[in-house]
Amino acid sequence: MDPLLTYRKECAAFFDALATDGKAPLVFGEGPHPHPVLMLIGEAPGEQETLQQRPFVGKAGKNLSAFLETIGLERNALYVSNVVKVRPTKVSAAGRLVNRPPSREEKELFTPWLMREIAIVRPDALVTLGNVALQAFVKDTVGQLHGRWTRAVVAPPSGEAFTLPLFPLYHPASVIYNRSLSQVYQQDLEALRDSLTAR
Ligand code: URA
Hints:
Largest sheet: 5 strands, mixed
Number of strands: 7
Low-confidence stretches: none
Oligomer: single chain
Distance between the termini: 33 Å
Strand order of the largest sheet: 2-1-5-7-6
Structural class: alpha/beta
Radius of gyration: 16 Å
Number of helices: 8
Bound molecules: uracil
């Protein structure tokens, strides 16, 4: 059996057992495995991702398409996932269910599952989008590390730890309304593209 299917079953069973208010619909990663060129790691699924049961669709999917166009890769060359695999929500003042950032507890619960996922997928390199994904590996912020290669320790709960090249990027959603940050994001993408083509 595909080890990722076993992983998904075990992860779903773990979070079902924790859920007090019904089963949380988990959104798992997708893409070629093992050994994709890159594994892209976001924060958490949103509404569209939860409805379609796929990471980075809807508005985030548009960001992803722009990302892929700049670095010259097709979506199917990439494994795409999130740290937290359930949509974090809150009720807005207007009474609507809206996204919120993942809590510390959610990040702590899901990080060992992310590590296990990476150990199964075995990408050549990791790209994190934003601080939530970056800080699954290091304490530094994306403001400090964006746009250049660093190394991440991947420590699955069972099995040996190993390291992978990691290229931290800002989260595309966080740069939309900030012109200077969106220029930085674009430059970082170009640096990533150049380093991939130079390989
Ligand atoms: N959609 C995702 O799947 N992940 C994000 O980080 C944002 C939107």
